[in-house]
Design brief:
Elements (H helix, E strand, L loop, with lengths): L19 H8 L5 E2 L5 E2 L2 H15 L5 H41 L2 H4 L22
Antiparallel strand pairs: 1-2
Length: about 130
């Protein structure tokens, strides 16, 4: 029998020592930063994600493959929401530019403007009608 050195614990081979973070790392759920010595360094976002993995696993009984799918879908939803937000901002800018352009047209010409529904490369030449 060997006596363990101070500060070093012996662990039985079948002891459950792998924490959920290791399993989450292996599945690619969390990608922690690494120290020069190879140790894991988790960001606050990583810690929040690991807590969610733990909650889904322990409280809701979801297996790690299911958790990976849930996290992937949530990431897709976040990306789509961000894209919708960008597109709405772009639309708002375009509407503001259109309103500014319309306001710049003298009132006398506004009745002659006709909206064009499709982009075209056609050139239109306008000539004022002669007065009767």
């Amino acid at each position: 029998m060997t006596i363990p050195q101070e500060g070093i614990r012996t662990v039985a081979e079948d002891a459950p020592v792998f924490v959920i973070s290791v399993a989450a790392d292996r599945l690619g759920l969390v990608s922690p930063g690494r120290t020069p010595g190879g140790g894991r360094r988790y960001s606050p976002r990583d810690v929040a994600l690991l807590r969610e993995v733990q909650r889904l696993s322990q409280e809701d009984g979801v297996n790690l493959a299911g958790i990976k799918r849930i996290i992937d879908l949530e990431s897709q939803v976040e990306a789509l929401q961000a894209r919708v937000h960008e597109l709405l901002e772009t639309l708002d800018m375009c509407e503001a530019r259109l309103m500014a352009a319309e306001a710049a047209v003298p009132a006398g010409y506004r009745r002659d403007l006709v909206p064009h529904s499709r982009p075209s490369s056609a050139m239109v030449v306008w000539r004022p009608r002669s007065a009767p």
